[in-house]
Structure formats: structure tokens, C-alpha cells
Amino acid sequence: MLLILPYVLLQIALIAGLLFAQRALKAFLATHTAIADTAALEALKQVVRTQMYGALYAIALGLILIPYSIVLSISHGLLGLAVVIALSGVGFVLGKVTKTLEVRTRSLPCTAALKSEYARVGEIWLKKALPRF
Fold first, then answer.
1. Which CA distances in Å does 23 have to 8, 56, 65?
2. What are the structural domain ranges in the chain?
């Protein structure tokens, strides 16, 4: 039973990160229906920075949680497996919702003057580890 509490706390930390990411994306999408000016683009960049650093946080937790899930499942049998499946399922669903919000954020209408910079920010968001814009 000693392994379950730290695992639950790590999963809660991951879930909290996903909820924070969702909140930031929802707030951005609620106030920006398009990238119409440089202020909107700068707001997008700030949100993307937060998302990218959050992704690094999630990766770090994942590197701990994946082997921990295996150990917990083996050492605690069905109870351990049930805890792993339940908490991982919550994280999976929240991750899918977050990904949907990210896609919506990268698909906003954009003025022609800002289109190339908007595309560049989206490309960095998808392919780089750190925000370089």
C-alpha cells in the first residue's frame, strides 16, 4: 500500500497540469476568435509558451509514471492495476480534450499580414521542445 499514495499524488500532479493547460487554452479561445492583430498574436505566443513548458512537465512526470505504473500493477495485483487504469484513464481523457483545444487554437482565422508568423508559431509548437519565438 505504500506505493499507491505517491503514485496517486504524481497522477494528481499530471492531471492538475492538464487542467491548467485546458484552462489557459479555453481562456485564450474565449477572448480570441481570430488572430486579427499583433496583440492577439502576442497573446497566442504567451499561451503557446505555457503549453510547451507544460508539455515538458508532463513528459517528465510520464517518465516517472510509466515504470511506476508497471511496478504498482505487479506489486499490488488487481488493486494496483485498477488504480493505474482509473487514473491513467482520467489523464488520457483530459489529454484528448487538451489536444482538441490545441488544434482549435492552431486553426483560428488569421489576417494575411500575420499568417506566416502564426504558422511559424504553430510549427514550433508542434515540432520543438522549447518556444523560440
1. 22, 18, 23
2. 4-127
C-alpha cell at 21: 493547460
**Cβ-contact 11, 86 below 8 angstroms:** no
Residue 92: phi, psi to the nearest 5? -65, -45
> pLDDT tens digit string along 14-54?
999 999 999 999 999 999 999 999 999 999 999 999 999 99
Q: State how far the Cα of 119 lies from the Cα of 125, in Å rounded to an integer.
A: 10
SS3 63: helix
Rounded-to-integer distance, Cα 39 and Cα 87, Å: 38
